[in-house]
Amino acid sequence: MANHPDSEFTVNTRPSFTPLLRAGVLACVALPALALANGAAPVPEIAIIGGVDATAGEFSSIVALVSADDSGSASAWLRQFCGASIVGERWVMTAAHCMFDGNGDPTNAASIRVVEGSLTLQEDTLEEHVVTNIFVHPQYDNNSLNIMHDIALLEMANPLQGTQVELFAGDAESLTGTTGIIAGWGATVVTSDGGYQFDDTLQRAAVPVVSRDACNAPESYNGLIQEGQLCAGFEQGGVDSCVGDSGGPMYVVNGNSLQQIGVTSFGIGCAEPDFYGVYTSVSDYLDWVDTYRSATGPVTIGPDDTSGRNDDDESDQMVVDAGGSAETDPVIDVGSGGSAGAFGPFGLLALCAVGVATRRTRCA
């Protein structure tokens, strides 16, 4: 998450705790090559500009996803790997790619905890909620280079106490030019060697929502961005979400209410010129979300049910379609965005960069 260079805060480097904790950073020459091909010079020690500390109660619907640690030996801040938002009494919404570990394997529900109501994740009295089920959108393909349908739902064992966020139901393109608000515990500094440093306080920043046409310009994502995705940021860069912010919300103020319009998904680099942050457009997935959060009781997954992953499941990815019926081996149509031709002169280099530059992992 962006942070102003003049803010008084302590920058920390998070050590690895489990494979879930940004251990999936991939070695790839694509990002530097793409940046240089696009006229961007490497910057030694990039401080991401524009974010400030959030205040208590400002975002009561945001939660942190942390790796389970029954031993209690590591703080939630050390174990945090993605963000999410409360969308129902027992439901949180996040990015689908957050539900896969650094090796690309599906994450077991028992390995995740949800923390709400904390700014720093450092308190000794934090309550960590148990996750019982994981539902990844059926058309999400974690092996695809085109990051579409990047949305997932987590069912809690017990009700959450935080505020359920209001989800935007209109056309995301109509919000072009509107100020979006992003928040998360992600990286505030990208170091010259491709590493990350993290503040210990929830950060927030304001970024303008950008039209799909602008995001698909030749100097930007060159046709990759499709319906179901939206972009936000500044052409000159400088303010952006980053590694660790994946799955977290992007809001807009609509009248007197704060509405979530996006789920943090991916980007080429962090706060790079011409490369906006890309978010899953919430309004395009409302029917799918409502299929689950409208349930009056816990969603049960039997041993032969392939509708999701529960805390006992060690199997491969399981999915549910928008109608709620069980489905396996979903087919994803990646369209023109999934081919090398969609990236013009950048070709396979750009495919590599976009394919792994989620806001949980990044080309290095």
Topology, pairings included?
Blueprint: E1 11-12, H1 30-37, E2 46-47, E3 52-53, E4 62-67, H2 76-79, E5 80-88, E6 91-94, E7 112-116, E8 128-136, E9 152-156, E10 166-167, E11 179-184, E12 187-190, E13 196-199, E14 203-210, H3 212-215, E15 229-232, E16 249-254, E17 257-266, E18 277-281, H4 286-293, E19 309-310, E20 319-320, E21 326-327, H5 347-356
Parallel strand pairs: 10-17
Antiparallel strand pairs: 1-13, 2-12, 3-14, 4-5, 4-7, 5-6, 6-9, 7-8, 8-9, 8-19, 11-14, 11-16, 12-13, 14-15, 15-18, 16-17, 17-18, 20-21
Helix pairs in contact: 1-5
Please summarize what this structure is:
By secondary structure, the chain is mainly beta. The protein has helices at 30-37, 76-79, 212-215, 286-293, 347-356, and strands spanning 11-12, 46-47, 52-53, 62-67, 80-88, 91-94, 112-116, 128-136, 152-156, 166-167, 179-184, 187-190, 196-199, 203-210, 229-232, 249-254, 257-266, 277-281, 309-310, 319-320, 326-327.
Number of helices: 5
Helix and strand element order = EHEEEHEEEEEEEEEEHEEEEHEEEH
Uncertain runs with pLDDT below 50, 5 residues or more?
2-49, 302-307, 313-356
Mean pLDDT comes to 75
Q: How are the strands of the biggest sheet laid out side by side?
A: 11-14-15-18-17-16
Number of strands: 21
Helix content: under 10%
Span from first to last CA?
A: 18 Å
Q: Rounded to an integer, what's the Rg over CA atoms?
A: 19 Å
